């Protein structure tokens, strides 16, 4: 198999897809799929069998841990033999807490639905920090936070915000709390991350499904939602 990828990645489940090799002698085949938590450093992965003989070129995998990295591998079997493993990696999304999650060195929430809803950011700072040492610069698309000239948090928002609604406060000289408001013109009810490129939050269970959304992803989402709900009922 070729082009092994993880699609429709959620907090506890994902869909693994691959393609059979048209030039392979193993052209009519079943597929074995294994999953392992990504090992630390150079430790050997502890592979677990997800399926021994899948007939389709995709597989829904559940029971994953939110916000964790995994390795997956796929190989083909038929009467002529067994192919080599083809591997890929993935990171599951975080479970949403008040609509948000954690980024590098900070936590964020979006407690209310709506394109113009609030965003709250909590950023620990060294004990004894003074407000005058902090600089918080918000533009419609970007956030920049520094302490005495040292960058603490910077990047591009997932959507856009209203800079005039910025409020921030230093709590007990140890935590910076920032309140923002989304620009409703950006149209996103929930953001999957505060800053682009930072860890994603699983917002699929926060919003009502749109019955008019179609395409391949809709069927995958329905299948994975059933897996998640079944796990919650166990």
From TrEMBL:
Q: Name the SMART domains on file.
A: FN3
Domain called CS: residue spans: 101-195
- Keyword field: Cytoplasm
Which Gene Ontology biological process is one annotated for this entry?
protein folding
Q: Which Pfam families match?
A: CS (PF04969), fn3 (PF00041)
What is any one of the record's Gene Ontology cellular component terms? cytoplasm
| A GO molecular-function annotation | unfolded protein binding
- The Fibronectin type-III domain covers 1-96
Q: Which domain of life is it from?
A: Eukaryota
Query: Where found in the cell?
Result: Cytoplasm
The protein's predominant localisation is cytoplasm
InterPro entries for this protein = CS_dom, FN3_dom, FN3_sf, HSP20-like_chaperone, Ig-like_fold, NudC_fam
* Protein name as annotated: Fibronectin type-III domain-containing protein
Q: Which organism is it from?
A: Coccolithus braarudii
């Amino acid at each position: 198999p070729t082009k092994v990828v993880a699609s429709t990645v959620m907090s506890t489940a994902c869909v693994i897809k691959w393609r059979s090799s048209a030039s392979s002698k193993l052209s009519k085949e079943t597929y074995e799929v294994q999953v392992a938590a990504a090992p630390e450093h150079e430790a050997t992965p502890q592979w677990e069998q997800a399926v021994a003989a899948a007939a389709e070129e995709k597989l829904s995998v559940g029971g994953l841990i939110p916000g964790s990295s995994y390795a997956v591998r796929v190989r083909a079997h038929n009467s002529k033999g067994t192919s080599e493993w083809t591997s890929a990696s993935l990171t599951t999304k975080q479970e949403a807490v008040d609509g948000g999650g954690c980024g590098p060195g900070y936590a964020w929430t979006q407690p209310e639905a709506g394109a113009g809803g609030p965003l709250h950011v909590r950023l620990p700072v060294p004990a004894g920090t003074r407000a005058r040492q902090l600089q918080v610069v918000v533009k419609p698309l970007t956030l920049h936070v520094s302490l005495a000239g040292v960058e603490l948090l910077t990047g591009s928002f997932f959507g856009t915000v209203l800079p005039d609604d910025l409020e921030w406060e230093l709590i007990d000289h140890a935590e910076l709390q920032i309140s923002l408001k989304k620009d409703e013109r950006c149209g996103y009810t929930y953001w999957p991350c505060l800053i682009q490129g930072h860890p994603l939050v699983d917002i699929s269970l926060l919003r009502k499904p749109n019955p008019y959304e179609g395409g391949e992803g809709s069927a995958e989402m329905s299948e994975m939602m059933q897996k998640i709900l079944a796990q919650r009922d166990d």
